[in-house]
Structure formats: C-alpha cells, structure tokens
C-alpha cells in the first residue's frame, strides 16, 4: 500500500466520528464531524474497505464521478492522485472548463442514454444523489451500463438519500406528502429497500450496504458545521431538479420557495430534523 493512499484513509478516519441519533426504524449511525475551520465539506462514507481491502487501491488509475455537479469530488481525487485520470459527467454543464487539474476531465452527457466510454475502462466509479434523475424502471439498466465500463476488480461507490427526512415539521410533512403522491409512480421513493439487492442481482460482488444520518440545520452541536453545510447542499440539489419535480407536484414557483424557506431555515432546527443516506460499495468480478 502506497503512502499517499494510506494517508488518505487515515485522514478520513480522523475526520469522521459517529454518534447515534434516536430513530424508530433504524440502528444506523449519524455522521458527525467538526468543520469549525471549514467552509465546505463533502459527504464521505465511513466504509474503508471492500472485501477486507482499502477501497482506494494504489494501482487505480481511472476514476469516474457520475452526477458530478460542479465537480468537487472529481477535483479532490484528481489533485490527490495526479497519476490518475479522473472524469466527471453530468447532464448539466456546471463544472469549470479552464481552472482544473490537468488530469481532471468533464463531459456533458445523459446517463440514461448510456455512458460514452468503452467497456472495462474505469477502476473506480462514484455516483451519488441520482434519485430524482433516474426513474424506478431505469435503475437496473443504468447500473448494468455502469458495470459494463467498470474494470474487473474495480469498485463502485453509490450514495443515495432517503427523500423524507426524520423528525420533520408540519410544512415538510405536507411537502413530502405532495411529493410522494405525485412521484411514486415515476421515481423510486423506496429505493433503499431495493438498492443493495439490485447490485447483487446484476452480479456485483462484495456488496456492502450501510445507512448513515446527517443532521439538518444548526441544532446538533456535535456536528459542527456539517448540518448547515448539508442543509445548503440539500436546497441546492432541490433547485437543480426543481424543473423536473414541479410538473409532477403541481406547485407554483412561489409555493415551492415558501415551503423550502420554512422547511430548511426554520423547521429543521425546531424539530431536530436529520436525513438518512445509504451507501453501497461493491466490486466487479
């Protein structure tokens, strides 16, 4: 194991610690960290190994970040592993075109139309928060194409979130009812129940599934700034898919904006809201 990768894993172990949030339906842990000196943070899973080995290998040379957004994860990997080639893809071009590491590349493409890469091209695939972009019946074919471009022995890391936060107020309860009623036929609200099994059905190996909680807002003092950062990220992600969701939900722009302002800048602290994220790590045989 090279020193660079060992350092990365040790750094993540030092950065994240877990505490339990009370929950009626899960024994999962909460991601809690001190970001008192940081203005930004990425959601990083606390799993460190796949089949007993570090999930970042020193011989990994190709990475892809699916649904990369502005490219934070791609930047981090490209800077930390300058010998590797890192590709970020998204349906929207919100990533930088000039100021970026030389080994970091971005493509605009629609994952539903297939990945524009050759078979067995990537050592590591990272995908997160695609629930509002992939309909229920599309997940299997998307994961099948992901497996196609993953090398034998390569790793996929997929992070999704439970659309309905825990311990929510009346406005968010109303919003989630509208959301669930409008989109249950189109988007897989209960993806958590099927997420891990889908990977196994497609023949992925060493499939590991875990759930983690992140607080929303400022109420959890032990979380430092992570709750505030994740609240901001949640609102930004919702804005990114607003045009997709509004036609299903039959809300006006003003109604959407008022509800989000109340939910994420008032109720989350009053009701101590927190959100569940589920993480799958798996390998291709």
TrEMBL record:
Keywords: Methyltransferase, Transferase. The keyword Isomerase does not apply. GO terms for biological process: methylation. One of its GO terms (molecular function) is methyltransferase activity. Residues 65-154 form the Methyltransferase domain. Residues 18-37 are annotated as: Disordered. It holds the Pfam family Methyltransf_25. Transmembrane segments: none annotated. The keyword Methyltransferase applies. This is S-adenosyl-L-methionine-dependent methyltransferase. It comes from Gigaspora margarita.
């Amino acid at each position: 194991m090279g020193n660079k990768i060992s350092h990365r894993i040790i750094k993540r172990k030092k950065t994240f610690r877990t505490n339990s949030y009370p929950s009626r339906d899960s024994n999962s842990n909460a991601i809690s960290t001190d970001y008192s000196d940081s203005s930004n943070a990425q959601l990083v899973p606390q799993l460190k190994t796949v089949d007993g080995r570090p999930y970042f290998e020193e011989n990994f040379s190709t990475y892809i970040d699916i649904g990369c957004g502005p490219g934070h994860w791609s930047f981090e990997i490209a800077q930390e592993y300058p010998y590797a080639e890192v590709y970020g893809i998204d349906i929207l071009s919100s990533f930088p075109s000039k100021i970026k590491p030389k080994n970091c590349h971005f493509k605009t493409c629609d994952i539903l139309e297939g990945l524009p890469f050759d078979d067995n091209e990537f050592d590591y695939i990272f995908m997160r928060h695609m629930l509002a972009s992939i309909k229920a019946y599309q997940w299997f074919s998307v994961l099948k194409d992901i497996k196609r471009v993953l090398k034998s022995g390569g790793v996929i890391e997929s992070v999704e979130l439970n659309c309905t936060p825990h311990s929510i107020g009346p406005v968010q309860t109303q919003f989630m009812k509208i959301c669930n009623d409008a989109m249950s036929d189109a988007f897989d609200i209960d993806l958590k129940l099927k997420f891990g099994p889908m990977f196994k059905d497609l023949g992925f190996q060493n499939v590991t599934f875990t759930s983690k909680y992140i607080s929303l807002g400022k109420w959890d003092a032990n979380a430092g700034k992570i709750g505030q950062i994740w609240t901001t990220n949640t609102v930004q992600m919702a804005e990114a898919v607003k045009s997709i969701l509004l036609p299903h939900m039959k809300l006006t722009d003003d109604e959407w904006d008022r509800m989000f302002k109340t939910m994420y800048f008032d109720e989350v602290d009053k009701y101590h809201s927190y959100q569940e994220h589920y993480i799958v790590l798996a390998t291709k045989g």
